[in-house]
Automatic annotation (TrEMBL):
Transmembrane feature ranges: 6-29, 41-58, 95-117, 123-145
Location in the cell: Membrane
Keywords assigned by UniProt, alphabetized: Membrane, Transmembrane, Transmembrane helix
Recorded superkingdom: Eukaryota
Record flagged with keyword Endoplasmic reticulum: no
Organism: Pachyramphus minor
Protein name: RHBD2 protein
Pfam families to which the protein is assigned, alphabetical: Rhomboid
């Protein structure tokens, strides 16, 4: 059961570790700025478990057609966060290499690019993207908690400790507090 979460910490080589670090900095960082640190931590674990469960469900079916690599690294969770962000985005179109494309197609384009990352599991990344899209479309509404709960969790042990670590940017749980901290 512990492997449902710990697979995000497994990397084969330096290239896959670097790609994972870029995904964490870029996708997870922007996602955290939108939802707050508390919800980000909760959703990181949730996306990790749901992506792993979906992978375990689909792997026997897909492995009959083509060889499937093990899900490793943070990329499936980053794809889940990217799927949520693009699904809930107010933008309709964005620029990708100078071409205007619908925002909802961006994660699928990035999925095709991620296929070429060494030791990256296409099925694992696809499962992460599907989980993120489902959450973004509201199919996983039971996983959401209100901003008031997020604000209350901001004041409990692990998160109060995170606020005190110098150099670490803590994002508050409520939208009003996030806007106030961004304006200062």
């Amino acid at each position: 059961v512990h492997r449902l979460v710990t697979y995000v910490f497994v990397y084969e080589d330096l290239v896959s570790l670097t790609c994972g670090a870029v995904a964490i900095c870029y996708f997870a960082g922007s996602f955290e700025r939108n939802v707050g640190t508390v919800k980000h931590c909760f959703l990181t674990i949730t996306f990790s478990v749901l992506s792993a469960l979906l992978y375990l469900l689909l792997e026997p079916l897909v492995s009959r057609v083509w060889e499937v690599g093990d899900a490793k690294g943070f990329l499936p969770v980053a794809f889940a966060m990217l799927g949520v962000s693009t699904t809930r985005s107010r933008m309709k179109r964005t620029l990708v290499f100078g071409c205007r494309v619908p925002v909802v197609l961006v994660p699928w384009f990035v999925l095709c690019v991620a296929w070429f990352i060494p030791h990256s599991s296409l099925l694992g990344n696809l499962c992460g993207l599907l989980v993120g899209e489902a959450y973004g479309l509201g199919y996983c509404f039971c996983l959401d908690f209100s901003e008031s709960v997020g604000s209350k969790l901001d004041r409990v042990f692990p998160f109060t400790l995170l606020k005190r670590i110098p150099g670490l940017k803590y994002i508050p749980g409520s939208l009003a507090e996030r806007r106030a901290s961004n304006s200062t």
